From TrEMBL:
UniProt-recorded name of the protein: Uncharacterized protein
Positions of the UniProt region annotated as Disordered: 59-86
GO biological process: carbohydrate metabolic process
Classification via Pfam families: Glyco_hydro_43 (PF04616)
Spans traversing the lipid bilayer: none
Coiled-coil stretches noted in the UniProt entry, renumbered to this chain: none
Alphabetically ordered keywords of this record: Glycosidase, Hydrolase
Keyword Hydrolase part of the UniProt annotation: yes
Protein family: Belongs to the glycosyl hydrolase 43 family.
């Protein structure tokens, strides 16, 4: 009797506990739901008020490219560049510098985006793949780049590989390369008209043991500003011509236009590191992400407070997925990343990954590319991502920055900038977590030409 009483008493306590827990969870869920709805409503409101402009960005534009009839053998270099994947016919044309349809992918100088020529006629259109001239009329040299918006000067700075030299092969089987010249920097208020600020980190001509010696490799430079030290910090991929050094390098400057002082290189956390990026979060914490273990996985770690080194905190992510060219961004507390596959200079399929913390775990949610045609979507529109830039004042809208590499003449590689939006549910079922969290769909829209929404262009 006593035992039964004790049992039922502890039983009722237990059910009380369970019900209170259920209650708390319900309240929490309701709060999150209402809060999320609020934020979503605000965003929807903004979107509706800019409706037609967004419609322009999210238009699905198709491409109908006729592949010319076969004409015997391809150049041996073009055959080598070909990735071992299906659907290569258009990719073959793309990689063949003597293809009859070469101009579709690499239009001539006459079609260049020239802000000086087009100034005043209110048509700052981006034409992905066309040559892009700076305000002095020279093709912009900022490959594998990234953009820093500097709050102090209220200016955008675009940093990238300055590759204005001849392309050659260091070895018979080596990848196409250009000697290191340095990191180019361009400034702009409108992200269309760019002024060349010069080489802000220059190659070393004589000292062969220096990381920046011209016969080495300097790729994918990215710059962030440290609010505590007031310094601009650049991180980059440093390598030798055979890509065996596999390190990251760090440089520092008092001003966004340099010149940057090179500090050192190292193998992050003791691991090989090739394509990489850095990301500064809203709370000032900065992260480094790099392809490692022979590109089979990515590593993510936090930088120190001064951003000049990394902490020991490191996680392995996307293990076994063989991804590179990471470009990270954040929307409504969720982190997203676009990566490419690993096929040298040849284009391949992009994938989006999402996470609740930069440190992971990261989940792969699919190919973000929309429009063009199937091969466009399977090749990231014949390009490879390098950076994703948020459009201030337009939550959920970003610019996806990519490089259309030209391995036959790397200096003539083009820029493919396209609108990227985050919104709507995923288009593929999730693998785990009982379908929770529900990542938003990330979309990159193909356009032959496009422009920023009016509200953004006319903001100043
Ligand atoms: C792909 C990388 O993303 C580029 O930055 C460059 O390293 C090439 N490979 C070299 O083949």
């Amino acid at each position: 009797m006593y035992r039964y009483f004790a049992f039922s008493l502890s039983g009722s306590r237990c059910s009380l506990l369970v019900w209170s827990l259920v209650g708390c969870l319900l309240i929490l869920h309701l709060y999150t739901f209402v809060h999320d709805k609020d934020v979503q409503n605000q965003e929807n409101h903004m979107r509706i008020s800019h409706h037609s402009q967004f419609r322009e960005l999210e238009e699905v534009e198709e491409e109908d490219i006729q592949i010319p009839p076969p004409r015997g053998k391809r150049s041996p270099r073009a055959a080598k560049r070909r990735p071992r994947k299906p659907h290569t016919s258009l990719i073959d044309e793309f990689l063949d510098e003597s293809s009859q349809i070469r101009r579709i992918f690499f239009p001539d100088l006459e079609t260049a985006m020239d802000p000086m020529k087009d100034a005043g006629n209110d048509t700052p259109y981006y034409y992905p793949g066309r040559i892009w001239l700076d305000i002095e009329g020279n093709p912009i040299q900022a490959h594998g780049g990234g953009i820093l918006y500097d709050e102090i000067t209220k200016t955008y700075y675009w940093y990238g590989e300055f590759k204005d030299g001849p392309t050659y092969h260091a070895h018979k089987r080596g990848a196409a390369r250009v000697d290191v010249i340095g990191v180019g920097c361009y400034s702009s208020k409108d992200m269309w008209t760019w002024k060349n600020e010069g080489i802000v980190l220059a190659a070393e001509e004589k000292n062969e043991t220096h990381d920046l010696h011209k016969l080495n490799v300097l790729e994918r430079p990215k710059v962030i500003y440290n609010d505590k030290t007031g310094k601009y910090v650049m991180w980059m991929h440093i390598d030798d011509a055979n890509y065996t050094k596999a390190s990251v390098g760090v440089a520092i400057s008092d001003s966004p236009t340099g010149s940057f002082h090179y500090l050192y290189s190292k193998r992050p956390h003791g691991f090989d590191s090739r394509d990489m990026t850095i990301f500064k979060d809203d709370d000032g914490v900065a992260y480094i992400l790099y392809s490692s273990e022979d590109n089979s996985e990515l590593h993510v770690g936090t930088l120190n407070e001064d951003y000049l080194d990394m902490t020991n905190n490191m996680n392995r992510i996307l293990v076994g997925q063989h991804r590179e060219a990471p470009a990270l961004f954040k929307h409504r507390g969720t982190y997203y990343m676009i990566t490419s596959g690993c096929t040298g200079w040849a284009p391949n399929e992009a994938l989006t990954h999402a996470a609740e913390s930069v440190m992971g775990p990261w989940e792969t949610i699919g190919n973000p590319c929309i429009g063009g045609n199937k091969i466009f979507r399977l090749t990231t529109f014949f390009s490879q991502g390098t950076f994703v830039l948020p459009l201030p004042g337009l939550p959920g809208s970003f610019i996806f920055m990519a490089d259309r590499w030209n391995p036959a003449d790397l200096r003539d590689s083009r820029y493919v900038w396209l609108p990227l939006t985050v919104g709507g549910p995923v288009d593929q079922p999730l693998e785990y977590n009982f379908g929770f969290p529900l990542w938003s769909r990330v979309s990159i829209y193909w356009h032959k030409k496009w422009r920023l929404p009016y509200s953004w262009r006319d903001k100043d």
